[in-house]
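User: Could you check the structure of this?
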Amino acid sequence: MIYTGLVYFIAYLIFSLVFLRERFMVDGGYMIFEMANTKTYPGAQNRYIIWVLNILPVSAINLSLPLKTVMISWIVNYTLFYAICFYMVLLVFKDKYSAWFILFINLFVLGSGFFNIADEITPSATMAIVLFSMLR
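Assistant: Sure, the predicted C-alpha cells are below.
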C-alpha cells in the first residue's frame, strides 16, 4: 500500500510537470494571474480549501521567483497535499480503507479534472476523509 501510493504520486507529479502549460488553461491561469498581481491568496469565490493549496506559489511569488517556478510550485503543492493526506491517513491513523479511498478519488477525477487545477471538490473530499479518519 505504501509503494502503491508512492508510485501513484510520483507518476502524478511527472505527468503534471509534462502537461504543465495545459493544466493552466482553464482556471489555473486566472488564479496565477490573481496571485501574481495581489501577492496574496486569491479570493476565489469563497473557495477556502484552495488557500491550503496555494502556500507554495504565494511564497514563491513573495520571494520574486520566476513565473515558471511559481507554476511548478503550484503543481508540487497539489501533489504534496494529496500525498501528505494519503500517508497521514495510512500511517498515522492506520486506516487503509480511507487511504485507498483517497487514491480512488484522485484516480476518478484524473480523467475529467486533471487539466482543471483549481478545483475545490477533490481537495475538500480528501480533507473530509482525513477528518473522518482522524475521528475513527
